[in-house]
Amino acid sequence: MLFSYFMRGEEERIFLEKMPIDLYYGPGSSPCRIVLLAAKSIGVELNLIPLNLMEQEYLKPEFVKINPQHTVPTINDNGFVMWESRAIIKYLQDAYGKNESLYPKDAKKRAVVDQRLFFDRDLYAHFHEVYNKKTFSGSPPDPANVETANKDLAFLDKILETSEYVAGDHLTLADLSLVVQISNLEAVKHDVSLKM
């Protein structure tokens, strides 16, 4: 009887480990695409739960109950809820990753990856300033915002002059995050030589 009780507990643990992680996301959202790309690279199965951001589904009471900050992406890993894309991908790697090179355990190597992830957050914010007004209200971008964003790209070029990847000699979570931002710039046909 006791043995069957412990076996049932083990079966439940295995079942829970195989349950995919819920990802609440907006399909066009850059932060959500970061999580999708990283999860694929890490080998984590996600149960995708799309939210219509234009219709503000993230403000529905059932979602606010899960995430009081009501932001996407948000994950629910069998009751463990987390939001903020870069925190999510670090968690997924730490909890489920088999390839340590994506987010090294070595403190100095990990610090470089973290620094590049913070840089990516700033890059995202600066380009959001450039294209948010242009996209939603039709007004031209502020020249000072364009200059700041292009300085970020120049800094990224400097990093890549010394290394094939942004945080060393192999692919890391920082590369996965930054590639989403760079693909956005290609999508909007951003001119890096743009001076306003």
Distance between the ends: 77 Å
**Secondary-structure element series:** HEHEHEEHHHH
Structural class: alpha+beta
Arithmetic mean of pLDDT: 88
Task: Note the total helix count.
Answer: 7
Radius of gyration: 20 Å
Largest sheet, strands/sense/barrel = 4 strands, mixed
Low-confidence stretches: 12-16
CATH topology of the largest domain: the name is Glutaredoxin
The CATH superfamily of the largest domain is known as Glutaredoxin
Silhouette: flat
Biggest sheet strand line-up: 2-1-3-4
Pfam family, one: GST_C_3
Organism: Exocentrus adspersus
GO molecular function: glutathione transferase activity
Subunit structure: Homodimer.
Features:
196 residues, alpha+beta, Glutaredoxin, Glutathione S-transferase Yfyf (Class Pi), Chain A, domain 2, 2 domains, 4-stranded mixed beta sheet, 58% helix, GST_C, Thioredoxin-like_sf, Glutathione_S-Trfase_N
List the helices and strands and how they pair.
Blueprint: H1 2-18, E1 21-25, H2 30-42, E2 46-50, H3 61-66, E3 74-77, E4 80-83, H4 85-96, H5 107-137, H6 143-162, H7 173-187
Parallel strand pairs: 1-2
Antiparallel strand pairs: 1-3, 3-4
Helix pairs in contact: 2-4, 2-7, 5-6, 5-7
